[in-house]
Structures are given as C-alpha cells and as structure tokens.
Amino acid sequence: MAGILRSPKIVAGLLILAFFVVLAVFGPLLVGADPTKTSGVGLAGPSAAHWLGTTQSGQDVLAQVVYGARISMGVGVLSAVIATALSIVVGLVGGYVGGVVDEVLSLITNIFLVLPALPLVIVLAGYLPSRGVTSVAAVIAVTGWAWGARVLRAQTLTLRGRDYVQAAKAGGERPWRIVFAEILPVEFPVIATSFLATVLAAILAEAGLSFLGLANLSTVSWGTMLYFAQNNQALLVGAWWWFIPPGLCIALIGAGLGLLNFGIDEIANPRLRTVLPRRARRARRAEVAS
Amino acid sequence: MRYLLRRLGFYLITAWAAITINFLIPRLMPGDPVDLMVARMNGQIDPDAIESMKKSFGLTGGSIWSQYWDYLGNLLHGELGRSITFYPTHVSSVIGGALPWTIGLVGIATVISYLIGTSLGVVAAWRRGTWLDSILPTTTFLQAVPYFWVALALVMVFGVSLSWLPVSGAYSLDVTTGFNGAFVGSVLYHAILPAITIVVASIADRVMGMRNVMVTTLGEDYVTMAEAKGLTSRRVMWRYAARNAILPNITSFSLSLGFVVGGSVLTEIVFSYPGVGSVLLKAVENEDFPLMQGIFLIISLAVLAANLLADIAYVALDPRTRQEA
C-alpha cells in the first residue's frame, strides 16, 4: 500500500479524481443556483458575478459545469459498473469452463472488440424511445464490456490450473463458487484497471451522444453543454468560456484515470518505469572514460 | 497462410454478426419503427416510403426467419432500402456519395497520425529518463480529450479568431467540382482542420502503444548485443529495436481503428464535412432508420476490411506467422 502511494502518477491521478468527486458531490451546495435558471445577461464573459461567464440565455456556466459533473460522472460510473459486471461474467465463465462455451464467448467478445463502438451506440440511441440516464448508460455499457472480458479471460486461464483452485475442485466445491469466491478476488487489480478505463470510455461516449443531441437534452451534462454551445454559435461569437470548461473537465478526469492506470501498470510491469538504468549507465561510462 | 485464413474466417463471422445485429436492433427495441414513423408524420407519408421502409427492415410479414432471409437477400443485391431524408434516393447511393470524403479524410489523417505517433513513441522509449518523459502526462491528457472538443477548439482559434482556415464543408462553393487544380486545392485546404483534429486526438494512443512495446524490446538481448558491438545508437534504435517493436504495434493499431472511425464521425459533424458521419447524424435526427442502419453496416464493414489489411501487412512483415503453418 505504501508502495502505491510512492508513485507520483498514482498520487496525481487520485488527487485529480478526488477533486472531481468532491465537485460532483458537494459542488452544487456551493454554487447553489439552479444551473438552468436564466438571467438577463446572455453570453457575458467571466466576471465576479459569474466566474465562468454565462450562456446564450444567461445561465451560469460554472453552475452548469458543477451540476454537469454529476450526470457525466454518474453515467460514466453506472455504465462502467454494468459493463464490468458483464465482462466479469463473460471473462471468468469462459476462461474457467473452457471448451465450446469459451469458444463462443471469446468469439462474441472479439466481435464486439472489432465493431466500431460509437456508431453502434449512436444507432442504438437512435432507436431508444426515451433517453433517460439509465437507458443511455445501458446502451454505452453494451459496447464497452469486451476489452475487460478479454483481459479477465486471459487471467482466468492462468489461474485455472493453480494449486489452490485444483484443491478447491478436488474438495468438491461448486464451479460457480470456485469462479466467484476463489478466482474473482484474486483478479481484483485487473478488474480495477479495466473498470477505470471503462469509466473514461463511458464518459467520452456520453459526451459524444449528448453533443449529438442524442441523450436527454433537458438534463445538464458536459456533453449537453457542448451541444448547446455548438448549436448557439458560441464559437462564432467567441464565447470560449462556454465550451472550454466542460471539455477540459472531461480531459482532466481522463488524465486522472490514465495516470492511475499507468501507475498501476508500472507497479505490475517494472520495465515501463521511467527512471531507467540506461542513462545512468551511460553517465557512469562517461565518467570512467574521463 | 493458415493464420490469414483463420483471420479471414473471423472477419466473415464478424461481418455476419454486424449484419445480424443490424437486423435485430429494430426488432428488439420497443415499438415498430415504421409505425412510429407513420404516427409522427400524421399520415402524410408516401405509401411508397412506408413500403420501402418495411422492405429495408425486412418487416414484410411472415415469420422472423423468412424476414431474415429477405433481408439477407436484399443485402446481397446491395439493396439497403430508400432513405427517408433524401427520399426517393436509395440508401446505397446516399452512402456512396458520402463515403469517399470520409475514407479520404480518415485515411490520410490516420496515416499521418501513425507515422508521427510511432516515431515519437520510438524516441520516447529510447530516451527514457530525460525531459521526453514529460510526454507521458501530455499523452494521457490527449488520450482523454474528446475528439469533437479538439475540433471546437481548433475552429475557434484557426477558423474564427485568426480566420486562417475554413471551418465547414469540404470545398468552397465557388470552384467547379471535378479534377482540376482549384477544386483539389480547395478540398485539401478544407481538410486541414478536420485532419489535424483526428491526428491530435488519436496520436497519443500511437505514441503510448509504440513506447510500451519498444521499452520491452529494448530489454532484449539482441539490442544489448548490438549496443555492445558499438553500433551507432541511431542504428540500434531504428534497425534493431524499432523494426521489431513495430510488429505488435500494427495489431494494436488495427484494433484502435474502430475508435478513429467513431471519433471521425463526431469530427465530421463539427465541420459539417459531407462524409458518412454527417449523414449518420442527419439520419438519426430525421429518424431515417434505413439510412441509419445502412451507415452502421458500411462503417462496420469498412473497419473490418481495414483490420484484414492490417493482418495481411502483419503476415507480410513477420516471417514467424508464415512459418506457423
């Protein structure tokens, strides 16, 4: 645990994520105002009254960013939870059971890996009769589980032959208990990394869908902010304060998740660490030569 | 050879899956799209259009199996139904008009992104522990930036504030279309910003992918050996390490193609670029289900074809895959 906190990447990633979680949970208490409340001054630049300026119809951009964090991160986490659950079931069952079941599940996984996700999400969303938060999250999850399933299957394959699993098998444990009580907990770090990556993919997908006007446009999310900014010519009138903050928030959360994943990868695979003997070796060589 | 045949089989199954998913989506979703459409148009819809929609969905009555057969038969004849938005144009000709723009834009941008990203990845791996490591936080940031937001920012800076580059369309309307200098120039000029968007938003994956494989390759004995022989570092870096590291990178690249294509859909929409992305949005906005599904099918098949090409390149470059059989 102490080792984890010694990695600057992990600490930076955790700090960024903590900031956004606090923003989403407590932010609305601070900004108070209703993010959809309009005021007289439309398209005003940042000022003391409106730190991030106002939209076309005079809504406070800061309030929208803060409330938007709830929807954007909420959809991201919800669909990542659904997708991760799917990937655990498919990956662990396939990897443990093997045979025809595994062949079929792997094939389905590989198909979903190759099919372009966003166009599929767009088409599915096009058919949705109502575009509530849960249905949007479910649609995104459908296209987001395959990578995790593939990684978990590979892990399960290596664990299947381990002694303790064999012992459990010989002891007459039921297969589902072996899979979910013996194998699953060992795979927790892998599940955590793939969950983080899926959260990012889902936040991006939600933003893309909302930007196209395919999510619920009456809720405020970072994606719908960008949709309204684009559709009200924010760009042409130079209202940068309207579209820079939501996109920046998405990118920062993504950077936080990415740093965390990097840090974990580096602990798992020391070769990826950035501090490296090569340069040190060269320096030493130069020293010896002189 | 066996490797390629196996991959080919996989892509055939995946293509069949894409086609079947396309067939099933309207049936699994609540509500019949045709009835929805008719209700929404208050009966002002052309009976021919209703017929064409039913046909393109295979909602021609009969059991689900006979509908499926009709649907597959129609596809074999390239019959994707008629578009509602551009009625009575066939879906296939609407897509045919948009496809060259997308393939041109995405193709060129992807090649540029691959060349620059891979070279950066090689150098970043080679010079670990130097200032180049600061490339890492930058790439994590770039990996997470939404494509369409990059597009918006570029429009703002280079299109609106500086007025250097056009912000929408694929060519200016005052040139005659056709293969002439003015038109080609205009097309290239209009492609600059969308292409930069795709390169910026996809380059980070290439840099990181190449760096990580390269780092592993640098630990191999033959690289140490080459260094010990006293070869120049440039030679060791490109001829020994990068050359071998690039192979796994091709596979990861082909897997990320789907993301590039998805991202370019959003990019096209920001720039009103007349490719399949813009047409897809129009189709969804107008509930033009035949067009929507046709586009999803074409995009999927294009991504599969590109993946197959990457596999062929892999076999051509790596002798080990040829020996396997």
UniProtKB/TrEMBL annotation, chain A:
Q: Which residues form the ABC transmembrane type-1 domain?
A: 73-261
The UniProt keywords, alphabetically, are: Cell membrane, Membrane, Transmembrane, Transmembrane helix, Transport
Q: Which InterPro entries match?
A: BP-dependent_transpt_permease, MetI-like, MetI-like_sf
Key word Transport present: yes
Entry GO terms, CC: plasma membrane
Where, by residue number, does the polypeptide cross the bilayer? 71-97, 104-127, 133-152, 195-219, 239-264
Q: What is its main location?
A: membrane
Q: Does the keyword rRNA-binding apply?
A: no
**UniProt record similarity statement:** Belongs to the binding-protein-dependent transport system permease family.
Q: How is this protein named in the record?
A: ABC transmembrane type-1 domain-containing protein
UniProtKB/TrEMBL annotation, chain B:
Biological processes annotated in GO: transmembrane transport
- Pfam families hit by this protein: BPD_transp_1
Localization of this protein = Cell membrane; Membrane
Which PROSITE patterns is this protein grouped with?
Answer: ABC_TM1
UniProt xrefs under CDD domains: TM_PBP2
Domain ABC transmembrane type-1, first and last residues per copy? 99-310
The domain of life is: Bacteria
Q: Which residues cross the membrane?
A: 9-29, 101-126, 147-167, 187-204, 245-271, 291-317
* SUPFAM superfamilies recorded: MetI-like
Keywords, in A-Z order: Membrane, Transmembrane, Transmembrane helix, Transport
Q: Which GO terms describe its cellular component?
A: plasma membrane
Give the way it sits in the membrane.
Multi-pass membrane protein
**Keyword Transmembrane (UniProt):** yes
Regarding protein family, the annotation reads: Belongs to the binding-protein-dependent transport system permease family.
Record-linked PANTHER family? OLIGOPEPTIDE TRANSPORT SYSTEM PERMEASE PROTEIN (PTHR43376)
Q: What is this protein called?
A: Peptide ABC transporter permease
Naturally occurring in which organism (per UniProt):
Actinocatenispora thailandica
